[in-house]
Amino acid sequence: MRKTAILGGTFDPIHNGHLKIAEAALKEYHLDRVIFLTSGNPPHKKDRRILDAKIRHIMVKRATSGIDGFESCDWEVNRKEYSYTVNTLKYFNELYPDDEIYFIIGGDSLRDFDKWYMPQEILKLCTLLVYDRSGGQLKSDFAKIIPGEKIDISSTKIREMVANGEDISHLVPKAVNDFILRNNLYKEIPDFEAHLKTMLKPERFAHSLGVRDTAAQMAEIFGADVEKARIAGLLHDNAKNMDNIYSRCTDLEVELDEFEKENPGLVHAKLGAETAKCEFYITDSEILDAIRWHTVGRPKMSLLEKIVFVADLTEPGRSFPDAPLLRKLAFSDIDKALFECVSSTIKINKMRGAKIHPNAYEIINELKK
Ligand SMILES: [Fe+2]
Ligand SMILES: [Fe+2]
To answer: Which of 95, 148, 307, 367 is least enclosed, having the fewest CB within 10 Å?
Structure first.
């Protein structure tokens, strides 16, 4: 029977201590594999900012790939709702009915295990493994002990060190260290505007402020979340002046369509959604989608997506011939405004001899109905 252990965690970021625990479990209980399970985005706003689950999971994948017996799983990353351990274990029992399932926890989690949701059910679904960092002091009558040593690393400490500009290369795998540095993770930023200003050329920054204000006004008129509209409007072009956009997309696992692969000018939208996670700790999927779809749009756009799309073309700094008409519509009829914005974009691109993204026609056809 295959022995499969689950090691769940926020992994913000994953570090050598996590790998050490998995290694010790593998050896002590002759496991066939340890699956690193990255937790999803927390349901409520907690007191600390947590990096978006997808970004945390990329680091988990980089840290575990190529190591015998190590695997990673993004099941919780892709789920909308919070998953209790008992549900996670049910999932793995159903996914691998022929496996013996183990679940690895730290010594401190053992102390309040009885306060977990459905602890008895958990024990029926797995063999609980506890990592002992106290040097043989830990005892339990319902969990098995993984003998270990003191681990003097924590994700909290690592985040603080990165924020202070200290070297963490001895605490995390090289691939993780490189990823953190390349993507500016865990930087202390003063506030969104001040940080955005360092990323953009002055005229692009001014445009971003315009889109922020226009989107906020529109949100008020059409009953969308004003704060989300402000944030999405402000950050929509955050990747606009970045270098090496295609290699960044590969690094952050951004999926581009064929059209985007040939038109660098469009890439900053999808890339910007990921860099907003990395540099501004955005995890809200509505904000991220509004950034992601602000250039080419898509059928069935949300209200927030429509607002940012239209605000991008109608903010006060825009001066192309159709702008005054579009601006009027932006504050009176959002679907009409979207229709005219897309039509205007098609017209301008045709005059320039540029190709039109297929989404533009899909939006037009959808709105005609
Ligand atoms: Fe843009
Ligand atoms: Fe823009």
So the answer is: 95
Question: Has residue 187 been placed in a domain?
Answer: no
Residue 289 CA, ligand 2 centroid: distance in Å: 15
Contacts 24+ apart (CB under 8 A), 131-140: 131/21, 131/24, 131/25, 131/104, 131/105, 131/106, 131/107, 132/107, 133/106, 133/107, 134/107, 138/107, 138/110, 140/110
Neighbours of 229 (CB within 10 A): 29
91 and 216 belong to one structural domain: no
Q: How far apart are CA 82 and CA 319, in angstroms?
A: 46
Predicted local distance difference test score (pLDDT) of residue 45? 59
pLDDT value of residue 44? 66
- How confident is the model at residue 46, as a pLDDT? 62
Q: Is 131:23 a contact under the CB 8 Å cutoff?
A: no
For residue 126, the CA-to-ligand 2 centroid distance in Å is: 51
**Six-digit token string for 195:** 């940080």
Which positions of the chain have pLDDT values less than 70? Answer: 44-47
Reported as type and span, the H/E element at residue 178 is helix 174-182
The number of the ligand nearest the C-alpha atom of 293 reads: 1
CATH number, domain of 199, equals 1.10.3210.10
The model's pLDDT over 13-41, given as tens digits with 9 standing for 90+, comes to 999 999 999 999 999 999 999 999 999 98
Query: What torsion, rounded to 10 degrees, do the Cα atoms 151, 184, 12, 191 define?
Result: 120
- Establish if 34 belongs to a structural domain: yes
Per DSSP, helices labelled H in 65-173 are: 85-95, 107-111, 119-125, 155-163
Number of the ligand closest to the Cα of 265: 1
Nearest listed ligand to the Cα of residue 317: 2
Note the pLDDT of residue 109. Answer: 84
Crossing angle for the helix pair 192-199 and 264-280, to the nearest 10 degrees: 140
Q: Answer whether residue 45 is part of any domain.
A: yes
The answer to whether residue 22 is domain-embedded is yes
* 189 Cα to the center of ligand 1, angstroms: 22
Residue 298 — φ and ψ, nearest 5°? -165, 160
Boundaries of domain holding 28 = 3-182
